[in-house]
Every structure is written in C-alpha cells, then in structure tokens.
Amino acid sequence: MVLNAYQPQYSKAAGEIITWIFKKSYHRRVYIMNTKLLKYISFGLVMVISIVLLLSIVMQNSYNENNENSGNNGNSYNSIDLSFIDENIGWAVQSNGYASDIVKTIDGGENWLNISSYKGNIIKIFFIDTLDGWAITQSNTSKAVSYAFLKTEDGGKTFKVKYKKTFKSISLVQMKHQTTDLIFFDKNSGYVMLSGKLLKTTDGGQKWSTITPNIPDFFVTEMCFINVDFGWVGGSVSINKNVNGDAYNAHIYCTTDGGNKWLEQFRVSSINGYQKTHDYQINGISFIDNKYG
Hints:
Elements: H1 12-70, E1 79-84, E2 90-95, E3 100-105, E4 113-118, E5 122-127, E6 133-140, E7 144-152, E8 160-168, H2 172-177, E9 181-184, E10 190-194, E11 197-201, E12 209-210, E13 218-225, E14 231-239, E15 247-255, E16 263-268
C-alpha cells in the first residue's frame, strides 16, 4: 500500500482571496511609492521657487538701497563732480543734463546719502566747510553757453542763484576744448574757469570779474591756484584760422597777485614745423607749492 504525502487542497474561493490580497498589497506599495515620489518632487519645486523668490527680493532691495543711498532716481547720469573738505566728508553731484542729485559721505566714500535734488545741469561743486559751498549750472545753445552760480549755506540741502553769465559767439573748436573748474579759499575769495575765461570773486560769488591774461585770442583750458594770490592758467592761442581750420599754440601763465598781472612761463608753438595745422593745448596743471608742479 502506497501512502501519498499530504498535499493541502485550496478551494477556488480561497485562491481568489489570496490573489486579491496580493494585488491589493502590490498596488498599495506602488501607490505609497508614487505618493512619496510626488512629495519629493513637490518639495523640490517649492524649494526652487522659494530660492528664486528670495534672490529676487534680495536683488531688488539691494537695487533700491543703492539708488536711495546714491540719490539715483532712475536717471542715467552723464556728469559727476566731487568736492571733499577732508579725508572723510565730501559731496558729489550727478547730472543727466536736465536735473542733478547731490549726495554726501561722512566716511570717506564708503556710503553716500541723498542730500537734495536740483532742477538744472550742475557741472561743478566746491565746499570749504560742512555748510558753505558753491555750484555751477550750464546750458548750451547753438550760439551761446549760459552759466548760473549757486550758493548753499546748509551743506547742499538748498541752493540759491547768485550770479549768471552768458558767453556768445563761441566757435565749435572752443566748444570742444572748453573745460570748467571752480575753487574757493574762504567764504569770499574764489576763481572759476568758464568757456575759456578766468573769473574771480571777492564777495562770495555775488559778482565776478574777468581776469584772463590779456593775450589776443587766448582761451583758458586749465587753472591751478595754491592760494588766493598765487596761481597758473594754461590755454591756447588761435593761429592760422584760414589754414585747415583753427589751430592753436599752448601757453602757461603765472600770477602772484591774484590775476592782476600775468607772466608767461611756457609755450609750445612749433614741433617739427607743424605749427600751422596742429592743435596744441594744456590738458592739466597741478602744483603743490610755488615751485614744484
């Protein structure tokens, strides 16, 4: 007699139940895995969007802070001038040709604060202390250049027009080479260079007198004063106007009495015989005392 080993017998219903449980378990595992994957993806997207938004906010705040500190109201500036009274305190003016912003630093230029805005093209500023300063505005037409002298007594918060000057019949060559400079030694005495002329004031800018060296066709392009009396001017004298357009010789003059008298110290009138067609001019003058410069 052969005995068969015991083999469990499952009913059809029981097999279907086991199959159903297995499928449910599999789909649940897949569902759980897919849910976790979606959570990871969602978390990653949230992080990326948060970082982008944070960087955008930081960049916008930095841009606004820079504009606020510099006085930039969205304008593009085409001229900037500086004036410092010591190693820490100074002012800067930024102009777009129509409006100007004045900013100030008290830490040597590390930070700048907006002081005021002025409706006009300020091209030069100069301060002698924390309150008293001057500024020059310029406006051009095809036939003339006009200037206004401004005075502040509150550190640049407000400016008042003290004097106006217009120069007519300036040639295109002179317009090209004209430069502007401004210097004061106290609340009353100062010099300014405008459209090829040198002017002096002894009343704080209320009135200005022309003290340009009395040389025919002399056009001032640079100046340097070490005190109220001692200084130099550099410029050009027009020659041979009918030969290939205007040409200029370069000159430097010195004064020791505040511009009443001038002595010629330097001249460039000919290099290799090209004096008739070449344009020579003084591009800069700087002295530390009455001998060295």
